[in-house]
Write a structure and sequence with these properties.
Blueprint lengths: L1 H11 L2 E2 H12 L7 H13 L3 E6 L7 E6 L1 H12 L3 H5 L1 H10 L6 H16 L6 E2 L2 E2 L8 H28 L5
Antiparallel strand pairs: 1-3, 2-3, 4-5
């Protein structure tokens, strides 16, 4: 998720590490804070893989700033990761939101639609957090008001997302299935 966010933000514009960290924190920090001890090793991995390039510019105060840019290989890797997400990128809400934040970088509407169809198929699978034996419980069947709240909120969120997915697939010319 972190590497995808790095590639995605650098696709938009070259950034120095501090600005990159601010943007990633704004996107994912409420769930997963981004520490320097996590960000900079990820940047170094991407740089070693030839996906990022680093240049040094004079600092506005004293220290020079390292500006990161995406290489052509980095652009291709971002597009590949967007077009071929792993299942966890589709099923984990936080990873999904990160992928969705950069899906516009896939220039082919049919490729975008293919990813959206994967998410729609996942949301259409019957699911529940609570079970009676092997049978998933519906919100109406749960006595605990807090657990009922989880199911009610999850259902409303899923329904809203499914409606958005169907409308977006229609606008992309991709059959929503």
């Amino acid at each position: 998720m972190l590497e995808l966010a790095i590639l995605g933000f650098l696709y938009d514009a070259p950034l120095h590490g501090y600005e990159l960290r601010k943007r990633i924190t704004a996107l994912t920090g409420h769930v997963r804070p981004v520490a320097e001890s996590t960000l900079y090793p990820a940047i170094k991995r991407l740089e070693a893989a030839g996906l990022l390039a680093r240049t040094t510019q004079p600092g506005s105060v004293a220290a020079p700033r390292h500006v990161l840019t995406l290489t052509d290989e980095g652009r291709n890797e971002l597009r590949r990761r967007l077009a071929e997400p792993v299942r966890r990128d589709i099923t984990d809400e936080n990873r999904w939101f990160t992928l969705l934040a950069f899906l516009g970088h896939l220039e082919d509407p049919s490729a975008q639609a293919a990813v959206l169809r994967q998410r729609l198929a996942f949301l259409e699978e019957p699911a529940s957090f609570f079970y009676e034996g092997d049978r998933p419980l519906r919100a109406e069947e749960v006595a605990d008001p807090f657990r009922r709240g989880i199911l009610t909120i999850a259902r409303a969120t899923s329904q809203a997302e499914m409606a958005w997915l169907v409308a977006t697939l229609d606008s992309l010319g991709g059959d929503s299935g």
